[in-house]
């Protein structure tokens, strides 16, 4: 994986798939590539945040590739590994409770529950999911959009690690 200098100089075609693993929104990927070169990592993260104001359609497309909290990601690509690391706070003892909570959330909102899980315990994720059940659907979609932006920033740091 490239450092910042490598990120700035790599061909767009080489970076595009890796950036899509961070956030599967082509407009976001294209914007980050177009804004190069970045003077430092903070500038890259600021650009990521600036371009991560997602439309409802982009949010739905981006979450399509994420596993449910407590489930393993499909495949063996880099995002599947990242997802497993990010969800490391989920224990087997919470699996049934999370499965039921996810099902209720999906029934209410029509999409999976998504949170930036890094550093959160399974209990914290379950509490967050429960607290968000009272959100109106449009508000919840904005919450999901913010969570996607947080995940993208964490994954960008991993790209440069």
TrEMBL record:
What are the alphabetically sorted keywords of the record?
A: Decarboxylase, Lyase, Purine metabolism
Q: Does the keyword Lyase apply?
A: yes
Give the domain of life.
Bacteria
Q: Which GO terms describe its molecular function?
A: 2-oxo-4-hydroxy-4-carboxy-5-ureidoimidazoline decarboxylase activity
Q: Where are the transmembrane segments?
A: none
InterPro entries, per the entry: OHCU_decarboxylase, OHCU_decarboxylase-2, OHCU_decarboxylase_sf
Q: What range(s) does the Oxo-4-hydroxy-4-carboxy-5-ureidoimidazoline decarboxylase domain occupy?
A: 8-157
Give the catalytic activity.
5-hydroxy-2-oxo-4-ureido-2,5-dihydro-1H-imidazole-5-carboxylate + H(+) = (S)-allantoin + CO2
Pathway per its UniProt entry is: Purine metabolism; urate degradation; (S)-allantoin from urate: step 3/3
Recorded E.C. number(s)?
Answer: 4.1.1.97
- List the GO biological process terms: purine nucleobase metabolic process; urate catabolic process
Catalytic class of the enzyme: lyase
- Which Pfam families does the UniProt entry name for this protein? OHCU_decarbox
User: Which PANTHER family does the record associate with it?
Assistant: 2-OXO-4-HYDROXY-4-CARBOXY-5-UREIDOIMIDAZOLINE DECARBOXYLASE-RELATED
For this protein, the record's NCBIfam families field holds: PRK13798.1, UraD_2
Supply the name of the protein.
2-oxo-4-hydroxy-4-carboxy-5-ureidoimidazoline decarboxylase
């Amino acid at each position: 994986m490239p450092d910042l200098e490598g990120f700035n100089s790599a061909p767009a075609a080489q970076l595009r798939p890796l950036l899509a693993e961070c956030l599967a929104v082509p407009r976001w990927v294209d914007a980050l590539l177009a804004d190069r070169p970045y003077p430092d990592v903070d500038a890259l993260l600021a650009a990521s945040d600036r371009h991560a104001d997602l439309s409802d359609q982009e949010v739905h497309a981006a979450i399509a590739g994420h596993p449910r909290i407590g489930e393993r990601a499909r495949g063996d690509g880099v995002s599947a590994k990242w997802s497993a690391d990010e969800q490391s706070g989920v224990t087997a003892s919470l699996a049934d409770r999370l499965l039921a909570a996810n099902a209720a959330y999906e029934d209410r909102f029509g999409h999976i529950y998504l949170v930036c899980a890094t550093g959160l315990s399974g209990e914290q994720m379950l509490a967050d999911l429960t607290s968000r059940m009272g959100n109106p659907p449009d508000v919840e979609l904005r919450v999901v959009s913010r969570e996607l932006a947080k995940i993208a920033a964490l994954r960008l740091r991993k790209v440069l690690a």
